[in-house]
Amino acid sequence: MPNISLRRRRGQRITGFLLNLLALVLTATITLNIININYSKYLYSFPNYSAATKKWSPFNTTNPHMKTWCPEAECLNSPLCLPCKRRHLFIISTARSGSTTLLRMFNDLPNVRISGENHNTFGFVSQIESNLKDHQPQLLKHPIDKTDGPFRHNTIPKGSLACISQDLHYIMNPPPLEVQNDPHFTDNLKSKYDPNAILGFKTVRLHMFKKPRAAARFLMTHFPCSRFIINVQQNITHQYQSYQRTFTGSLKKRGNSTVNATNVSVDNSTAAYNGPTKAGLKDIRDFHVALSRALGKSSAKIIRFDHWKDNVNVLNEVLDWLGYENCQYDAITHENENGYGVDNTTIIDLGKDCHYPFLDE
Question: HSE on the CB side for 141, CA within 13 Å?
Fold first, then answer.
């Protein structure tokens, strides 16, 4: 009997030891997995990590928003610039087609800040790249540092000019003045105020690029992690009549000429109405349709003013496309309804649980 009792106690001790060892192994495995996950996130956010090679690399194409906002973006990362770090949302529209209404409504989304017109500023910004490319020697095509001669120049990393455009955009679309007046609002705190904000602008002048593919190439290169809402109007006659009501008899004069809504200067002595013709409006609409195709379905969604002006569900479909959850517009505002009037009566309620689930990504 004593031997049986002794063997039983030894068996219990061995069993206890094995159970403790198993628990220790499981705890260590879980801990290592957590460490590995956090370490992977650290590596993934580190600018010199290549997701493709899993090795340190100063130049890589890591896309931090590959599974959400911009799955097909080409991110040409370098030590000078991380062009896909910031997400963007742009409203690109034909004029007199409800673009200001869209500007107000999409600005109501959580963590979205879209600025208004910028006089085609980024059309001029695109000329910086053209100037460096189109002259000899082509400074953007140096594969190695050029260490001698009148054009001696270290290599300009591919994709790095995107940060010029994005920094300019941030300056043109800053946080509110109340935040800027904060004595603690320094460069370091600036990134803490809205590091995850989705920024953008709306424009009715992108057609000044003339070529849709050129415009798309600029946008995808300088703002690679972006979504584009392309707004057009199918009823050209209605759009033309809106132009006539708005720009006839209230022209803004500069000397002996008048500048119209498309920045085309017309002599006042030749016309009372200086907006585009119906044929011109059709060309502008066709530009935007072609632009949407060039940007691709994952980046651009085309909507038609004729469809959404009386149907809020069209805009709710855009919210779904953007990836927002528990968000539904319940009404449509009417900005610029009588020229440039402001809608002070319509209140938009997106729902208390409206959010973008990947904001901290």
Answer: 9
Is residue 243 within 8 A of residue 275, CB to CB? The reply is: yes
Convert the pLDDT of each residue in 9-37 to its tens digit.
Answer: 666 666 665 556 555 545 544 444 433 43
**Contact between residue 301 and residue 315 where contact means Cβ atoms under 8 Å apart:** no
What value does the CA radius of gyration of the chain take, rounded to a whole number of Å?
28
Q: For residues 340 and 267, what is the distance between their CA atoms, to the nearest angstrom?
A: 24
Tokens of 244: 């006539």
Tell which phi-psi region holds residue 296, choosing left (phi > 0), alpha (psi between -120 and 50) or beta: left
Q: pLDDT tens-digit profile of 237-255?
A: 999 999 998 887 644 443 3
Q: DSSP secondary structure string, 145-181?
A: -B-SSTT-B----TTTTHHHHHHHHHHHSPPPHHHHT
Q: State the angle between helix axes of 212-222 and 278-295 in degrees (0 to 180), rounded to the nearest 10.
A: 40
